[in-house]
Amino acid sequence: MTTWLITSVSSGFGRRMTEQPLAAGDRVVGTVRAPDAVAELEAAYGEQFCTARLDVTGSPPCTRS
Asked: What is the rounded distance in angstroms from the CA atom of residue 58 to the CA atom of residue 45?
């Protein structure tokens, strides 16, 4: 079993990239901004699917040295 780290799993490309490994029996750790958007995946895949809330809208801008 492979474990995948996928960002932005609640919609679009990230969502599609999440569904495929889960269906194949792999584990996915995914970042979300809106945890409610993936509630059905959490219910369907249990411990095979884990999310972490990630929202960087309040972070300071990156600086280059």
From this structure: 31
